[in-house]
């Protein structure tokens, strides 16, 4: 199965956070699978036009979350135990993204609504209501 190439972007405000957030999303969505190798720190820094320390910081954050494993001379790979969202959840997320983008809704608006609705639904499902 051929995988589409992954494109990362950064902002001037916090490139390490951007790299971390984007790679985290690729891992939890299953677009980067278990044992898949991430680019070397040097290669990613060159591709993104940032300092190697910036990429190293992002990789370290992923490692602290248990999403990647770094080994000297073996590089950084997605951890076997990286927590993926269930396929059913990913399908619903993709449907939500399709619907929201077709109506012109912004990512920020959708995320903000999810943050408000999540606790309400989570509490009602835990109480059995």
Would you write up a description of this structure?
With 129 residues, the protein is mostly helical. It has two domains: 15-78, Arc Repressor Mutant, subunit A (Orthogonal Bundle); 87-117. It contains five helices and two strands. It has helices at 15-28, 41-48, 52-64, 87-102, 107-126, and strands at 68-71, 75-78. Strands 1-2 form a two-stranded antiparallel sheet. The mean pLDDT is 86.
Walk me through the topology.
Blueprint (H helix, E strand, L loop, with lengths): L14 H14 L12 H8 L3 H13 L3 E4 L3 E4 L8 H16 L4 H20 L3
Antiparallel strand pairs: 1-2
User: Which structural class best describes the helix and strand composition?
Assistant: mainly alpha
Low-confidence stretches: none
Q: How do the strands of the widest beta sheet line up side by side?
A: 1-2
Q: In the CATH hierarchy, what is the superfamily of the largest domain?
A: Winged helix-like DNA-binding domain superfamily/Winged helix DNA-binding domain
Protein name: HTH-type transcriptional repressor YtrA
Keywords: DNA-binding, Pyridoxal phosphate, Transcription, Transcription regulation
GO molecular function, one term: DNA binding
Domain HTH gntR-type: 13-81
């Amino acid at each position: 199965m051929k995988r589409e190439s992954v494109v990362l972007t950064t902002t001037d405000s916090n490139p390490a956070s951007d790299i971390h957030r984007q790679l985290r999303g690729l891992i939890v969505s299953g677009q980067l699978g278990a044992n898949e190798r991430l680019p070397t720190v040097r290669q990613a820094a060159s591709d993104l036009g940032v300092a190697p320390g910036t990429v190293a910081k992002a990789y370290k954050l992923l490692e602290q979350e248990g999403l990647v494993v770094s080994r000297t001379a073996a590089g950084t790979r997605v951890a076997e135990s990286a927590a993926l969202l269930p396929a059913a959840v990913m399908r619903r997320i993709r449907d939500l993204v399709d619907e929201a983008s077709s109506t012109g809704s912004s990512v920020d608006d959708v995320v903000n609504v999810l943050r408000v609705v999540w606790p309400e639904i989570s509490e009602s499902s835990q109480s059995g209501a």
